[in-house]
Amino acid sequence: MELIQSEQNQWLKRCKALQQKKYRQQYGKFVAEGLRFVQEALEHGAVEAVLVDEARQELVPQLSLQETPCYLVKAGLLEKALPTIHSQGIAAIAVQPQWSWKDIASMEQIIIIDGVQDPGNLGTIVRTALASDTQAMLCLSGTVDLYNDKTLRATMGAIFRLPVYQIGNVQEMTDTLHRWGFQLVVSDIRAEQGYHQLQFPVKTALVVSNEANGPQQIHHGDMLVKIPLFQQAESLNVAVATGILLYAIRMGKEAR
């Protein structure tokens, strides 16, 4: 394998550039860090190149590289090019997954993210959505960048398995979902019905938002639902609340 010995190498410069959202959007790529995440990216054929610190060469045999280029990097250089303070010494330039919008028409359980701004929460929601058999995620403007490095770490590789769509026109999205038979169920503490009282629609689009400010663009939907709070708790973390609701929807479907 070729040894990269300069910070001016194209791959290291690309790693640094992809720390910025504008370049991630321009190139349609992002940096996957850590052995498990790189393995997930390779499994899904989404890798342009793999970079391994020369001090961590023992990681290379654990990779299914096939024809994917893999480079050793002079000790210390890779860490400088990555946002993580203590990296695992392995990263990949990965291609952002692309999904067909029309596939949503045949789904039954999806989630809409309306203004969640904490990257860790968004990443956790991606992971939880996948685990609960939610079939897609739609992110409205005002939501934190899906490919933020903190968001990516929290997904634990689920980013390659759960279709995620960036939505520009909310009204067009809503009209299309209604045409496909979905009902929008908005999580809102002001709702009259708790999740344990509501019979969720067969085709449910759950809307979740910033726990402090509530829904930003979808305030009413077709139904409102809440999670009852006890002991004077002000609110639930949005990722925790989302997990409760997604599993409630899933369990309701199984019960039917």
Low-pLDDT runs of 5+ residues are: none
Q: How can the largest sheet be summarized?
A: 6 strands, parallel
Distance between the termini: 56 Å
N to C succession of SSEs: EHHEHEEHEEHEHEHEEEH
Helix content: 25-40%
Total count of helical runs of at least 4 residues? 8
Radius of gyration: 20 Å
Q: How many β-strand runs?
A: 11
How are the strands of the largest sheet arranged?
8-7-6-10-9-11
Roughly what fraction of the amino acids lie in strands? 15-25%
pLDDT averaged over residues: 93
Shape: elongated
Structural class: alpha/beta
Description:
By secondary structure, the protein is of the alpha/beta class. The N and C termini lie far apart (56 Å). The chain is built from eight helices and eleven strands. Helix 5 (119-131) packs parallel to helix 6 and helix 5 (119-131) packs parallel to helix 8. The relative contact order is 0.14. The protein is elongated, with a radius of gyration of 20 Å.
Which features characterize this protein?
256 residues, alpha/beta, six-stranded parallel sheet, 8 helices, 11 strands, 21% strand, elongated
Question: Could you give a quick summary of the protein structure above?
Answer:
By secondary structure, the chain is α/β, with parallel strands linked by helices. It contains 8 helices and 11 strands.
Topology:
Layout: E1 3-4, H1 10-17, H2 21-27, E2 29-33, H3 35-43, E3 47-53, E4 70-73, H4 77-81, E5 90-95, E6 109-114, H5 119-131, E7 136-140, H6 149-155, E8 164-167, H7 170-179, E9 183-187, E10 204-209, E11 223-225, H8 238-255
Parallel strand pairs: 1-4, 3-4, 6-7, 6-10, 7-8, 9-10, 9-11
Antiparallel strand pairs: 2-5, 3-5
Helix pairs in contact: 5-6, 5-8
